[in-house]
Design a protein that fits this description.
Blueprint (H helix, E strand, L loop, with lengths): L18 E5 L8 E3 L8 E4 L7 E4 L20 E5 L2 E8 L6 H19 L7 E8 L10 H10 L4 E4 L2 E3 L2
Parallel strand pairs: 3-9, 6-7, 7-8
Antiparallel strand pairs: 1-2, 1-3, 4-5, 5-6
Length: 167
């Protein structure tokens, strides 16, 4: 079964504000962007060049089932697309350990699903962000793990931080 991640009702209208947030109320509803209540933001998008950016909700909106089952594939919360860039975003609000591994797994599975359904070669810049409001500062991932993630995901770079800078 194929899924279209780019032409979907799950895609919000593009926005070009200098700053906005990505929220997930973590109650089974879909992730969304917001400019009014930064207390709800799990990830902050900084867009100093006023670039038009589209946010598409993936989890709880684009449903892909595991082959031959009625079990939903694990996916990240959403993606930002602009120019030649594709940024995947997984949002967490947990203070316990293990969240980075969980987020990376969801991001990797989403990349697998995207690659299966779309040609991603038009995207020059591909990143995967694991964002956790309880751990907002940049988390260092060692060089070997970064390289391994890059190779496993056909060119996606991994970042663990809550600020997504659009360049």
């Amino acid at each position: 079964m194929s899924a279209n991640f780019f032409e979907t009702d799950c895609k919000e209208s593009s926005r070009n504000e200098k700053q906005f947030g990505i929220c997930d109320d973590q109650n089974g509803t879909k992730a969304y962007t917001d400019t009014t209540d930064n207390r709800k933001w799990i990830a902050k998008v900084t867009n100093n060049n006023d670039i038009d950016i589209s946010f598409t909700t993936i989890d709880n909106c684009i449903v892909v089932y595991k082959e031959g089952t009625k079990e939903k594939e694990s996916s990240c919360d959403g993606m930002l697309t602009f120019a030649q860039s594709l940024y995947l975003v997984e949002l967490k609000k947990q203070s316990t350990g293990g969240w980075i591994a969980d987020a990376k797994g969801q991001l990797e599975n989403t990349i697998k699903l995207l690659s299966k359904n779309h040609d991603l070669s038009n995207f020059r810049f591909k990143k995967a962000f694991a964002c956790n409001r309880k751990h907002p500062n940049f988390t260092v991932i060692d060089t070997a793990e970064r390289k391994s993630f890059f190779e496993r995901t056909n060119g996606f770079r991994i970042d663990v931080q809550t600020e997504i800078k659009i360049k």
